[in-house]
């Protein structure tokens, strides 16, 4: 069925919230494809990532954002927080994600930072962890009493519970506008970007508690040879002593990182991927605006 341009709704939907509440997981499950990397550790997302869903009359352009935080203060984190606030200025709908039964000082700070006049939709995530479900009722009442939200929807992003009602609430706020993307588009990011992100995801998942914050990934070359993608990537670490940890004994760790990232990339691209990984020391990269710019952060 084709929808005439006059009937189309389209808009950007910013997904905001403190670190680790499940923003990226939500986008991936709304769009139906893994685009945004996730981990059990806070501040996994460093870039704004768009995920697009077209359904009936509506095209939702979701924008994943880095968790708003105040604990770290290097140039990377300043750029991350600023990018969230820029997103809000350009956005049609705001969805704020929190964890069920946990509304803490960091959540309050996210609310306090919102420009006056923005009434977000509140998505109360991870309700699969709440037993019995009735325990949610007083929490729902408490959130309602804040009088800050245009709607409140309890969900489980991971189990895909109640995502349809959430989409319904978002759709009510989407402006009448012609679609910006093709009906089947899921993202506007390029393959190079996903290569760097999917490697970074494995660094977050496989490298202990501190190291993920001291590493990043730079794609040195990306070529398509027939149906195969050939990718050369460098993992940048902050200090000499971090390099052997990323490489592991007999290179085992680096091999595992590469294998997992490669499988995810092959799924996303639908083609064979040949991935070569190196580790390099670049002291102070997270405070070097030139390096950050080259990695796609905006200043
Ligand atoms: N039980 C449960 N866990 C979830 C749910 N949604 C997300 N998670 C988990 O919560 C953790 C954080 O998820 P992310 O999607 O990376 O969170 P985020 O808000 O994007 O985090 P940052 O990018 O660091 O700000 C991961 O371990 C997810 O698997 C959910 O509905 N239920
Ligand atoms: Mg995230």
Strand and helix layout:
Elements: E1 9-16, H1 23-31, E2 49-55, E3 58-64, H2 75-89, E4 93-99, H3 105-113, E5 121-125, H4 136-145, E6 151-154, H5 163-173, H6 191-206, E7 215-225, E8 228-237, H7 243-247, H8 252-269, E9 272-281, H9 289-294
Parallel strand pairs: 1-3, 1-4, 4-5, 5-6, 8-9
Antiparallel strand pairs: 2-3, 7-8
Bound molecules: guanosine-5'-triphosphate and magnesium ion.
How would you describe what is shown here?
With 299 residues, this protein is α/β, with parallel strands linked by helices. It folds into two domains: 169 residues, Rossmann fold (3-Layer(aba) Sandwich); 104 residues, GMP Synthetase, Chain A, domain 3. It is built from nine helices and nine strands. The strands form two sheets. The chain has a six-stranded mixed sheet, sandwiched between helices. Strands 7-8-9 form a three-stranded mixed sheet. Strand 7 and strand 8 form a beta hairpin. The longest helix has 18 residues. Bound molecules: guanosine-5'-triphosphate and magnesium ion. The site of magnesium ion (MG) has 6 residues, from helix 1.
Summarize the structure.
The chain has 299 residues and is of the alpha/beta class. The chain contains nine helices and nine strands.
């Amino acid at each position: 069925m084709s929808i005439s341009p006059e009937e189309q709704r389209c808009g950007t939907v910013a997904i905001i919230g403190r670190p680790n509440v499940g923003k990226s997981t939500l986008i991936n499950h709304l769009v139906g494809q893994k685009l945004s990397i996730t981990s059990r550790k806070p501040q996994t997302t460093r870039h704004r990532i768009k995920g697009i869903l077209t359904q009936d009359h509506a095209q939702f352009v979701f924008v994943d954002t880095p968790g708003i935080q105040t604990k770290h203060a290097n140039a990377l984190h300043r750029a991350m927080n600023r990018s969230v606030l820029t997103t809000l200025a350009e956005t049609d709908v705001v969805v704020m994600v929190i964890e069920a039964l946990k509304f803490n000082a960091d959540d309050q700070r996210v609310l306090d930072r919102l420009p006056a006049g923005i009434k977000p939709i509140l998505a109360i995530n991870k309700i699969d962890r709440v037993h019995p479900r009735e325990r949610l009722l007083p929490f729902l009442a408490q959130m309602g009493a804040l009088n800050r939200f245009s709607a409140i929807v309890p969900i489980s992003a991971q189990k895909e519970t109640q995502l349809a009602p959430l989409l319904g609430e978002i759709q009510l706020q989407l402006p009448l506008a012609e679609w910006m993307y093709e009906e089947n588009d899921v993202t506007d990011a390029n393959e190079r970007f996903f290569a760097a992100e999917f490697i970074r995801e494995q660094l977050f998942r496989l490298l202990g508690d501190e190291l993920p914050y001291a590493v990043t990934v730079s794609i040195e070359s990306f070529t398509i040879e027939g149906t195969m993608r050939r990718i050369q990537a460098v993992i940048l670490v902050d200090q000499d002593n971090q390099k052997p940890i990323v490489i592991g004994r007999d290179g085992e760790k680096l091999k595992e990182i590469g294998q997992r990232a490669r499988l995810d990339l092959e799924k996303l691209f639908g083609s064979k991927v040949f991935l070569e990984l190196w580790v390099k020391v670049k002291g102070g990269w997270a405070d070097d605006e030139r390096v950050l710019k080259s990695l796609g952060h905006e200043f």
